[in-house]
Structure formats: structure tokens, C-alpha cells
Design goal:
This protein is about 65% helix and about 0% strand. With about 650 residues, the protein is an all-alpha fold. The longest helix is centred in the last third of the chain and has 28 residues.
């Protein structure tokens, strides 16, 4: 059970499920393995399996708040909002001041459009947590859905007052300004939102709209480009960029945008008609006629279509077809003059189109063909949904925290990164890799990858094989070390430490054993701290059983000191020791070790990043931002977001 929870904490979900299965087979009456297996499954997006495990946990112990919370989250992901509401209400009976539960209950009511219940939930949430920014954002959306714009604006202002670094708060207020036609104010707020978070395509789409209304077409097109870099399948981005490209005469690229829209929505007649206009502009009259015909077949009273098709047919040499379309237009004009236009005509005529120019935009759901030239905006139901889509679970609540880059490890598996390409090297480790004693190439990395099911089975088999080898030769420190790596990979930290300690006894100059023992002890400490706080929450005050002895940080430092003594050029020992010092808030000692790590390896991005954060913690923002900038330059992209948190946007 301890190993399984260890694996779960370090996000090795597939491995943790295998251990929980063993616990369930041995003790099927316990609720904990079902509950924690549900956590693992929900992280793997097996929502149905997670719900079933929560059912089993609640059947065995109906007083566990976390089980209702996670089952509610699983039900939300399956669009079972009634079931989720029932779970959150039950959990709140046992834990009435749980902010996460109130948050998710509110969102579930909002999804059902039960805004009165959502308001009631938010009143309770604000009494419990008056400085909880998300509550104001959610209530602001409720007011928006109830068409109370001024009340919504008040809540969004309050959210910004509470947390000026929350990009969603600025973006939410910008939506209100857009609806009030305060386009300059909307653009200013969206500038701030984008300054704080560059990963939200919706913010660029909305800023493009604000710029379009201020006749800044170049700026609007630039924003659509940026939005489509983030979200290449964004419908509004492609459609509106196509319209703007057509306005400035960039016909071929406008056709590309409308081709993409039509591929996404083959029955989008406005996109087809706009493409037809562009094809005619570029001389492809056959393609234009095909597009016009598709629109006319769908909307036989859309006279503008006949006008442009007649023109295209004439240019293509189809005089008979052109005359037929012109006759249709003439007949329509005569019918209008004689008052014979049918009252059930779905499309308004050219005569009414002129009045529509007062509005430059149309809703996405608007099917009136006479609005084909208008910029598309999201429907009301889509406008602010992005600000409240963050359902929260204890393990799933992935708020972006400013934290140190992880410690380095010796392992066989590493996560791939599109940006960080540095190869971490040390001659002793390279020699070990070439010696043939290891089953796979040993890597030095702080981007460890969780194991797949096949890899888990592989390393369990290796443990058995290495055990046989150790029985045959129990004097080999390297064999103990190799088995320790396998134990570490399957999260059996106690067995790994036992093997590493034995390896050190057999060869006290073998520094990789000290290095890995320090890392594993540090991970044990991190897990145990989280375990104690989680147990207190899960068991509602009941004292949790102690599953492992607390390891002293001094032992971690002692091992790293020994590594540095034996291998003074092993840069990763200085880095890890610096991390330990930073964890203990001994920031000056941390800076000294990061300095040494950077001296040994001037391209160690992680050391720059962590030293930058450490300088910030000491109040030296200027030095910190300089280091963070270098870390970003070397491939740690998140450094730029951290820089924004400590740099005010200049006033325009």
C-alpha cells in the first residue's frame, strides 16, 4: 500500500494501479485501495472505472469525503451533473468548509443552467473564503448569463483587485467591455491577460475583435495568426482571418482559411459562398460557380447568390446559364415591386441588407446568408465558459505553482521535450554504460518518465534476475546498485535504500550509490509530508497509521557531501544539494551551490532557473529575473511565465 501511494504521488499511475490490485486481492474489505485506484484512473482519464472504484470505496466506508469528491469529478467528466451535485452535497455534510467542493458544486449547477442554486453556492463559498478569486469570476459569469452586466463587472473588478496576476480575471472583464462596445478598454484588459498567460487562444481571438472594431485590421490579423498557432483548429480564427485577408486582397491565403473552415464544417454555406467570391476573384470561375450553386440549392431565395453566379457564368462563357440567373433576379425585383414576396421567405433581401451594416459582427449560430461578410463572434453560451471549466480534485487540481525544477536522478527513462535538448553527461556514468553491467543505458535526468505496463513487468523480472546474480556473488557493489535502480523505478524505496546501503558497505568509494540514496531519501521525505496532510484530510482528523520512519534531511546532505568529496566534478550533486538547501529555506547556501553548478556547467538551464527563483525568494528580483531569462533562453519555457509574475506590464 505504501509503495502504491508512493507511485501515485509521483504520478506513476499505471504502476500504482498494479500495486493497488495486489492490496485489493489480499484485503478486499479495505476502502483505501479502491479510493486511491480511482485517483489513478481519473488521472488516466478512465472516468467510468474511477466512478466504479469510488462506489466500492463508499460501500466500504461511507464517511470518506474524498471518495465523494473524486466520484463527483468522474461523473462531471461523463456529463452526469445530477449525480455530481448529489456527491458534492453529501461530501459537504461531512466537510462544510471545503472550498474545492463548493467550487465544483457551483460549476455543476451552472452547467445545468440552475443559476439561482449557483448563486446560493457562491454566497456560501464567499463566506468561507472571502478572498477566493474564482468565486467572483464564477458569480460574474452567473450575472452575465442573467444579463446583469453591471453586477458582473463589479465581480470581475473585485477579482482583479484580489489577484492582479490572474489572467482569467482580466479576460473576463474584457468580455464585458466588448459587450458594452468599449473596445479600447477591452483591448487594454486583453493585453494584460495575454501578458500574464500566452497560451489562451481565446484571448487573442477576443483582442482581434476589439482591434477590428477600432479598424486595426493588421493587428487583428496578427492576433488571429497567434491564436491559430496555439489552437490550429479554431473555427472563428480561420473564418475571420479569411474575411480580413479577403478585405486586404490576400485572396489565395483567404481561400486556404475558408478551405479549412469547410473541411471542419462541410455544410457551412457562408464559408462556401465567401470561397466562391474569392475563387471568382482569382479566375477560377468553375470552382466559384460550384460554390454559388451549393449555396443557392440550400437557400433558393438568396438573390445575391444568383447575381454573383450570373456574373461568373458570363465570364466562363455560359451565356444561357447567366441569362437564367439574370431572369431570376429580374423576376424577384418585379415580385418585390408588386408586393408578391412570400411571407415565409427565410432569407432577407438585398434591400434590408443595407441596414445590417450597422452591426459588423454576427453570432456563430446566425444562418442569415445576407450576413456573409460579417466577422463571427462566439455565441453567448460560449463566451465565458473558458473561465469556469476548471473542476478541481485534490490530486487533479494542477494550479500553476512557482516551484523549483526537480532534482537529478540516475534512471533509464526520460520524458521527451521539444525545447530542452541538453545531454547530461559524466565520464564515470558513461564508462558504466559501456561496461555492460547495466540492462539499459543509464541517464542523468530530472525529467523522469513514469513506467508503462510493459516496463513495469520488465523491471519486476529484472529484480528476480538480479537477485539470482547477487546470491551467486554477494560481494559486488555494482550488482546491488543495479538492483536498487530497479527497486527505485518500481517505487519500492525501502528496498532500494537497503541495496544502496549494502553497495556503499561493499565499496565506500562508489559515489552513484550515495547520489541515488540521497535522492530517494529526499523523495521519501517529500512523500511523507504529503502523506501526513492527505491522511489528515481523508480520515477527518483520525490519526493515520505511520507507514515509514521519517528520514532526516541531514542524512540527505551527508550523502551529497560524500558524492562531492568523491567526485568534485559531478555537477548534479551540487545542484541537488542546492535544492535541499532551498527546501529548508537556507537560500544563501542554495545560491552558493547553484553558483558552483553553473561554474562547472554554464549551460545547466535548471540551475539558472532555480537560482533565479532563490534570488526572488531573497528579494533580489533583478538578479532573479536575469537568471530566469537565461533559463528561458536555454529551453525552460515556463521561466517566461514566472518572469511575468515578477514584472509589471508597462503602462501604454
Amino acid at each position: 500500500m505504501t509503495i502504491a501511494r508512493n507511485a501515485l504521488y509521483f504520478e506513476d499511475y499505471v504502476l500504482s494501479i498494479q500495486y493497488f490490485n495486489q492490496v485489493i486481492n489480499a484485503r478486499p474489505y479495505l476502502y483505501e485501495p479502491y479510493f486511491f485506484r480511482a485517483l489513478a484512473k481519473i488521472n488516466l482519464e478512465d472516468f467510468q472505472g474511477a466512478e466504479a472504484d469510488c462506489d466500492a470505496a463508499i460501500q466500504r466506508n461511507p464517511f470518506v469525503v474524498g471518495a465523494y469528491q473524486i466520484r463527483g469529478l468522474a461523473r462531471v467528466r461523463q456529463n452526469n451533473f445530477d449525480g455530481a451535485i448529489e456527491d458534492y452535497k453529501q461530501a459537504l455534510r461531512y466537510d462544510p468548509e471545503n472550498v474545492t467542493l463548493w467550487h465544483n458544486l457551483t460549476l455543476s449547477h451552472m452547467q445545468k443552467k440552475d443559476y439561482e442554486s449557483a448563486r446560493s453556492d457562491l454566497d456560501s463559498l464567499m463566506r468561507i473564503a472571502p478572498r477566493y478569486t474564482r468565486a467572483y469570476l464564477m458569480r460574474g459569469e452567473v450575472f452575465m448569463q442573467q444579463k446583469d452586466t453591471m453586477a458582473a463587472l463589479g465581480d470581475f473588478n473585485k477579482a482583479i483587485e484580489l489577484d492582479k496576476y490572474d489572467s482569467d480575471a482580466w479576460a473576463a472583464r474584457a468580455i464585458v467591455y466588448l459587450q458594452q462596445a468599449k473596445y479600447a478598454d477591452a483591448e487594454a484588459d486583453l493585453n494584460q491577460a495575454i501578458h500574464l498567460s500566452t497560451k489562451n487562444a481565446g484571448n487573442f481571438i477576443n483582442r482581434a475583435l476589439a482591434r477590428f472594431h477600432q479598424n486595426n485590421l493588421r493587428g487583428a490579423m496578427s492576433d488571429y495568426d497567434l491564436a491559430l498557432d496555439i489552437d490550429p483548429n479554431n473555427f472563428i480564427g480561420h473564418y475571420n482571418r479569411g474575411l480580413l485577408r479577403a478585405r486586404v486582397g490576400d485572396d489565395n491565403r483567404a481561400i486556404e482559411d475558408f478551405n479549412f473552415v469547410i473541411q471542419m464544417e462541410p455544410d457551412n454555406m457562408m464559408a462556401i459562398f465567401n470561397r466562391g467570391l474569392l475563387l471568382a476573384q482569382t479566375g477560377d470561375y468553375k470552382g466559384a460557380i460550384a460554390d454559388y450553386t451549393a449555396v443557392i440549392e440550400e437557400y433558393p431565395n438568396f438573390m445575391t447568390g444568383y447575381y454573383y453566379r450570373a456574373e461568373a457564368r458570363r465570364k466562363a462563357g455560359d451565356m444561357k446559364g447567366a441569362e437564367e440567373d439574370e431572369f431570376k433576379l429580374m423576376k424577384s425585383q418585379l415580385d418585390k415591386q408588386n408586393g408578391a414576396v412570400s411571407g415565409n421567405v427565410a432569407q432577407r433581401t438585398e434591400e434590408k441588407e443595407e441596414g445590417e451594416e450597422e452591426s459588423k459582427t454576427r453570432k456563430k449560430s446566425d444562418k442569415n446568408m445576407n450576413n456573409y461578410r460579417k466577422i463571427v463572434i462566439a455565441d453567448d453560451s460560449e463566451t465565458t465558459r473558458q473561465y469556469t471549466s476548471d473542476y478541481r480534485g485534490r490530486v487533479q487540481d494542477k494550479n500553476v505553482n512557482i516551484k523549483l525544477e526537480p532534482m537529478f536522478s540516475l534512471t533509464y527513462y526520460e520524458k521527451l521535450s521539444d525545447v530542452k535538448r541538453a545531454v547530461n553527461y559524466h565520464k564515470f556514468i558513461d564508462d558504466m554504460n559501456h561496461s555492460g553491467v547495466l540492462p539499459k543505458r543509464l541517464l542523468i535526468t530530472n525529467m523522469e518518465s513514469p513506467l508503462t505496463e510493459e516496463q513495469v513487468k520488465f523491471h519486476f523480472a529484472l529484480i528476480d534476475a538480479h537477485t539470482s546474480a547477487i546470491v551467486a556473488d554477494d560481494r559486488s557493489a555494482v550488482k546491488r546498485f543495479v538492483r536498487a535502480i530497479d527497486f527505485y523505478l518500481v517505487q519500492d524505496f525501502s528496498s532500494a535504500i537497503a541495496d544502496l546501503t549494502e553497495a556503499i558497505r561493499l565499496d565506500d568509494d562508489f559515489f552513484p550509490a550515495y547520489f541515488m540514496r540521497a535522492l530517494i531519501r529526499c523523495k521519501q521525505l517529500e512523500y511523507q509530508r504529503a502523506e501526513q496532510s492527505e491522511d489528515a484530510e481523508l480520515d477527518a482528523g483520525k490519526e493515520a497509521a505511520k507507514t515509514a520512519a521519517v528520514v532526516d534531511y541531514n542524512a540527505v546532505r551527508a550523502d551529497l557531501n560524500k558524492v562531492i568529496e568523491l567526485a568534485p566534478d559531478f555537477v548534479y550533486a551540487y545542484y541537488n544539494r542546492a535544492n535541499v538547501s532551498a527546501m529548508l529555506k537556507d537560500y544563501r547556501a542554495a545560491v552558493d551551490d547553484y553558483d558552483k553548478a553553473i561554474e562547472l556547467n554554464p549551460d545547466l538551464a535548471d540551475a539558472y532557473y532555480n537560482r533565479g527563483l532563490t534570488h526572488v525568494f531573497l528579494g533580489n528580483n533583478k538578479l532573479g529575473i536575469s537568471d530566469l531569462s537565461k533559463a528561458g533562453e536555454l529551453g525552460i519555457v515556463s521561466a517566461y511565465n514566472v518572469i511575468k509574475r515578477f514584472t509589471e506590464q508597462p503602462a501604454e
